[in-house]
């Protein structure tokens, strides 16, 4: 079950923890319980860091939207760390107006849909929007790290791009691999962005699981009045969650992660686990889903 606790409002930090759940527990959950355990509803609050720690691979999902000046990234009390990246690495993707990240004195300009990787040991991290009327929205994923790798910005032109699906099966999509080991070294964090073509609504179908890592999906560019139905659970015991714009879903390693929207949309996927093999997936035939 989820365990929610506001750790440090004085430093503009909201922090909550989510315990890991087994397939047996999830089978008995009602809609509210599923949402409490797996759905992250509020990621962007003005001038506040919003964090959710999943006990699946100790994955941190967060967001920050600076509107009145620069915001410093500090370690929530629950991390028991001297500074945020003392024992972690961090992936950042901007899903708002243009902004600036300053990491140990190095400035990184991030436009819409551009990414930044910050390695373990980076101490002083500041977030800033260029226009408070159209603030940056920095979507954040963080995982434990043992090795310190170089920080690096990943522009849209740096991405490894793969086209998949078709209009006939309503899943024509462009996969942008941003923070993956074919582009830069990381400990275990991987992040990318999948853009659905107009008229396509299905993502990650045929579905898959991967016992060796967990995943988080962040849905955005969902038009006003539309939504995405996210599918989760074991292939023979699926569940669904209705997800609104700029919300995220935690996906355990034993769960499928797929969705269908009432319109096209975009989502960011983040992964952590024991390997960096993007293709390490156990596929589920569509006819076998239940």
Describe this structure in words.
The protein has two helices and 25 strands. A hairpin with a 2-residue loop joins strand 8 (99-103) and strand 9 (106-110). The protein has one domain (2-288): Jelly Rolls (Sandwich). It is globular, with a radius of gyration of 18 Å. Strands 1-2-4-5-12-7-10-13 form an eight-stranded mixed β-sheet. With 290 residues, it is mainly β. The model is unreliable at 1-10 (pLDDT under 50). One of its GO terms (molecular function) is zinc ion binding. Belongs to the KduI family. Zn(2+) binds at residues 208, 210, 215, 257.
Radius of gyration of CA atoms, rounded to a whole number: 18 Å
Order of helices and strands: EEHHEEEEEEEEEEEEEEEEEEEEEEE
**Structure annotation, total helices:** 2
- What is the fourth-level CATH superfamily? Jelly Rolls
> In whole angstroms, how far apart are the ends?
24 Å
Label the CATH architecture: Sandwich
Q: Briefly note the CATH topology name.
A: Jelly Rolls
Beta-strand percentage? 35-45%
What is the β-strand count? 25
Content-based structural category: mainly beta
Mean pLDDT: 94
Pathway: Glycan metabolism; pectin degradation; 2-dehydro-3-deoxy-D-gluconate from pectin: step 4/5
Cofactor: Zn(2+)
Organism: Salmonirosea aquatica
InterPro entries: KduI (IPR007045), KduI/IolB_isomerase (IPR021120), KduI_N (IPR027449), RmlC-like_jellyroll (IPR014710), RmlC_Cupin_sf (IPR011051)
Search tags:
single chain, disordered N terminus, seven-stranded antiparallel β-sheet, Jelly Rolls, 290 residues, eight-stranded mixed β-sheet, 2 helices, mainly beta
């Amino acid at each position: 079950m989820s365990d929610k606790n506001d750790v440090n409002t004085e430093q503009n930090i909201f922090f909550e923890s989510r315990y890991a759940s087994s397939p047996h527990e999830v089978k008995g959950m009602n809609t509210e319980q599923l949402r409490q355990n797996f759905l992250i509803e509020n990621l962007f609050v003005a001038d506040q860091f919003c964090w959710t720690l999943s006990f699946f691979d100790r994955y941190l999902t967060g967001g920050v939207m600076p509107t009145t000046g620069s915001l410093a990234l500090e370690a929530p009390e629950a991390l028991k760390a001297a500074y945020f990246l003392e024992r972690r690495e961090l992936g950042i993707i901007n899903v708002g107006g243009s902004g600036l990240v300053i990491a140990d004195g190095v400035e990184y300009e991030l436009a819409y849909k551009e990414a930044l990787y910050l390695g373990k040991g980076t101490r002083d991290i500041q977030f800033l929007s260029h226009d408070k009327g159209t603030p940056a929205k920095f979507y954040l994923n963080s995982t434990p790290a043992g090795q310190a790798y170089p920080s690096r910005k990943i522009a849209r032109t740096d991405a490894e791009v793969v086209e998949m699906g078709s209009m006939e099966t309503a899943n024509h999509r462009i996969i942008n691999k941003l923070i993956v080991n074919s582009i830069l070294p990381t400990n275990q964090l991987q992040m990318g962005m999948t853009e659905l073509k107009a008229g396509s609504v299905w993502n990650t179908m045929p579905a898959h699981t991967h016992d060796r890592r967990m995943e988080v999906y962040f849905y955005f560019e969902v038009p006003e009045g539309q939504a995405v139905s996210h599918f989760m659970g074991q292939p023979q015991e699926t569940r669904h969650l209705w997800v609104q714009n700029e919300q995220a879903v935690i996906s355990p390693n034993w769960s499928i992660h797929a969705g269908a929207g009432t319109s096209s949309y975009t989502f960011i996927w983040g992964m952590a686990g024991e390997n960096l093999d993007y293709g390490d997936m156990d596929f589920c035939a569509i006819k076998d889903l239940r």
